[in-house]
Amino acid sequence: MYRSHTNGELRAAHIGQEVTLAGWVQKSRDLGGMTFVDLRDRYGITQLAFNLEENSDLCLQARKLGREFVIQVKGLVIERSSKNANLPTGEIEIKVSELNLLNAAKTPPFTIEDDTDGGEELRAQYRYLDLRRNPVQQKLRLRNQVALETRKYLDSNGFLDVETPYLIKSTPEGARDFVVPSRMNPGEFYALPQSPQTFKQLLMVSGFDRYYQIVKCFRDEDLRADRQPEFTQIDCEMAFVEQEDILNMFEGLIKHLFQTVRGITFEGNFPRMTYAEAMAIYGSDKPDIRFDMKFTDLKALSSGKNFQVFDNAEAVIGIAVPGASEYTRKQLDEITDWIKRPQIGALGLVYVKCNLDGTFKSSVDKFYDEAALKSWAEASGAKAGDLIFVLSGDLDKTRKQMNELRLRMGTELGLRKPDEFKPLWVLDFPLLEWDEEHGRYHAMHHPFTSPKPEDFGLIDSEPGKVRANAYDLAMNGVELGGGSIRIHDRALQSRMFELLGFTPEQAQEQFGFLLNAFEYGAPPHGGLAFGLDRLVATMGGSDSIRDYIAFPKNNSGRDVMIDAPSQIDEVQLKELGIKTN
Amino acid sequence: MYRSHTNGELRAAHIGQEVTLAGWVQKSRDLGGMTFVDLRDRYGITQLAFNLEENSDLCLQARKLGREFVIQVKGLVIERSSKNANLPTGEIEIKVSELNLLNAAKTPPFTIEDDTDGGEELRAQYRYLDLRRNPVQQKLRLRNQVALETRKYLDSNGFLDVETPYLIKSTPEGARDFVVPSRMNPGEFYALPQSPQTFKQLLMVSGFDRYYQIVKCFRDEDLRADRQPEFTQIDCEMAFVEQEDILNMFEGLIKHLFQTVRGITFEGNFPRMTYAEAMAIYGSDKPDIRFDMKFTDLKALSSGKNFQVFDNAEAVIGIAVPGASEYTRKQLDEITDWIKRPQIGALGLVYVKCNLDGTFKSSVDKFYDEAALKSWAEASGAKAGDLIFVLSGDLDKTRKQMNELRLRMGTELGLRKPDEFKPLWVLDFPLLEWDEEHGRYHAMHHPFTSPKPEDFGLIDSEPGKVRANAYDLAMNGVELGGGSIRIHDRALQSRMFELLGFTPEQAQEQFGFLLNAFEYGAPPHGGLAFGLDRLVATMGGSDSIRDYIAFPKNNSGRDVMIDAPSQIDEVQLKELGIKTN
């Protein structure tokens, strides 16, 4: 036994006990004839006291301890002369009688403190040291709690945890697969799953009724800040359900998680909105509804005043930014430059200041008089002191640009509070989206999503207008998860593959097992998957999923700590029957 | 809502209620003017009743339902005229008023019954139908329960579930890696983890103190019946512990699992044995101690009687097989042939019948008289009516062969009872094993295992004799799991790599991150991993792990249901920068 107690455990009630502790030296200080060492572990910090006069050898030994040395001490729990109310163990200290050095430590390349002096790259390289820091440990503990409470909720609702395979078959649909060459089957490859989609559907065909899994998924995509090549899904599926059953079940899960993990209660049902509404009002299928600034259609009000830009635009959209009428010219220029960057791509930005004295001042005063501007203010709900931004152009693009601007302004004005949580169900996603580049339809969710029965009639005539029984749960501008009611009929599934450009032979070759399964008694079913990384980050009030992953990869898909990926030797390649170019 | 109740739910108390049920047609039968349909789901079976006279349309419709059709019915819960005490719902039936066909079904290629008529290959191809069978569902439910109870136990003992990466670095040590070509880093590869070993050690360096994960691991080995290319581990690690702490913690886990999942209580501590003892007494490091037949060293007793085979043998080992003295010549010949097969490789088998009349009859009567044979019987504990088997030759080989024979006889005599569970800790494994083929040492557990401190002195002089702080938990002849106290000192870890034939440069290149981590304050630590597949199979009283995996692969590493692995297209290969030979 290396220790009798942890470093977060001892209280006044333990005074007088002989204890053994172990941990890391957080820091030490010499005060007159005393040396005090803060001993740290996952559970807390305990103060060790060494008296130079009473035991000089031991005290001199303690004075040689560096930061992050690993030690074991034996000693007596005594009352602390100057108590530390900030520390749960602040009422006591250990009068040390024995000190064992378990392992020395070099000076860490950055300080192991809540606010460290280490840059991102250095901390990534020494991730095992960064993980010692309290804020990082807290994030991973939050993740552990969320996963465990997810399991408890789903188990109590009759879901079975069933493991699906990681070495599966590559399919052309969706994102790019990571593949794994097979040594036993030369020239052939497994693929790592982008999700266990077809397997969970087969489990429904098998009668498992309610399935879940917290499971790693893989996508070989070019990475952005909030993407990782491997990520974790809370993956669920239910049989004999309609959309409403699924929304209720998983709204219950999110409420349970916030309640148990964060102590936050959501009153009433989560609000709902169709995809069409969300796009019209927020220009996003995952709107942040912690703040207002809803889109206003200014097309009619702005037309016919000889402002060609608006007259020729498909869409003219405004938002009222509260209390921003006194933004300076410099601020407005900066915002204009920002929105004109290629990443966002607006051609220009029109603003209207709704001055506190009731007058208006805009960047288009040449075309619009006070009365016109006043009508815009009324339509967009702008009050004196607010600022109206107007963007125009192609409908889809303008919505996207205005969404970016709205989010930026929300952030800038402090309206996106990290401790406020606003869920929103977004419903009735389109079944298909048109891919200009390849001249064909893509499945918006995935090829297994069921069209809404009332739109069946449009499948042949106007497939682009067919809505799906597909839903997302958005929160604070983030997509926490989504799902759909699935097709469970072979003929409809075959028609869907046809719409997506598969020949019958290709459909059979890739998904024959699923099509066949549907002929042996497939129940109606549907499901949903949450992105665990993103859910936990959102619950933690953060944008960055990387902080909530123990060993994340960088934007080039590299683990810089272990230096992976790396070259492998010729023998391995030969055994696998492959060559690198 | 597709259903108001499941098919396992209705009881006499529900009589008089209108209900909606959904499920699969298990079977139907016509009895006079009635048609009865057994409706099945995961939860049970409910009998549906249709009356030809009262509602002929509906009843005729019901008579058209085939096996495995998916239907929904509405109706009244009524008392059953002939109750079925074998069925939890056997007191009631549903007087159906509405019948909806949700999906038709082709006749399944094998019967969906507890005893199916489907062969192994056919069932593998239609795994989604095999998974409908009750015994198969039970196995996966057992697995779900074991995983969940494992989490509960570990959580209540302060373990944190931390996910480690799946895309890691290939290392030459251990089994063959599966590798994943990186598109973003052309010519480089990730490897899939054989275990999260180094990551869990880094988490200990990070101060996580207690870690666990139920995690998929991958080994590209030639497959045997009880091996899968992907398998699941209950992976655990603890800091500031000695071997005794770990044994206690995980003995507690196994007791908790048997108690909660199977209702079986183990009294007292699990027995323990050193590796050396296990090999001497059972010829195995995972002995089945449900039955006796311990090895007896007959070398001294059998020497000097002119039987050259024994005289020249390094080892002469006997076992007493209870009650087998009347085995026929044919039976003994069959056993002799069996043990001489190349897979086992004995050169011959000597037997001694301890007849019920007190006489002895052996296959070596020419060399050994009654007195000699009697001395063998006494030494091996054979009584009248028993049979003694004797094998001889090289010590290691003879032990292995005798282990096979012992297990076969145990099975044959019904001594390996599927509902009896006998755990055994095997301790003090050797640190290294000599690899004749490559003329070097291999780590018996893995390169991170700590030698026993009392054997430190042998590392330079006789490395083959160094024992490790390594332990396995065996049960019923199966290795459930194993682990070790790890090295946490950089110098010792470097020395270990040297013993294993790494140059310092190779060690640094492959495991530099771990060696470096040890310099920044690594605590003493150790851990253990259980094979979940094998644990669950053992708890289920079965030898075959494949039955406990939802979608297993066959002996060629193929998933015959989805047909993976498979060829991928040229575009994919090109993007990855690889070519197949």
Automatic annotation (TrEMBL), chains A, B:
Is Magnesium one of the keywords? no
State the reactions this protein catalyses. tRNA(Asp) + L-aspartate + ATP = L-aspartyl-tRNA(Asp) + AMP + diphosphate
**Main location, first listed in the record:** cytoplasm
Domain Aminoacyl-transfer RNA synthetases class-II family profile: from-to ranges: 140-552
**InterPro entries given in the database record:** Aa-tRNA-synt_II, aa-tRNA-synth_II, aa-tRNA-synth_II/BPL/LPL, Asp-tRNA-ligase_1, Asp-tRNA-ligase_1_N, Asp/Asn-tRNA-synth_IIb, AspRS_core, GAD-like_sf
Question: Which keywords appear in this protein's UniProt record, sorted alphabetically?
Answer: Aminoacyl-tRNA synthetase, ATP-binding, Cytoplasm, Ligase, Nucleotide-binding, Protein biosynthesis
User: What does the UniProt function comment say about this protein?
Assistant: Catalyzes the attachment of L-aspartate to tRNA(Asp) in a two-step reaction: L-aspartate is first activated by ATP to form Asp-AMP and then transferred to the acceptor end of tRNA(Asp).
Q: Could you tell me what this protein is called?
A: Aspartate--tRNA ligase
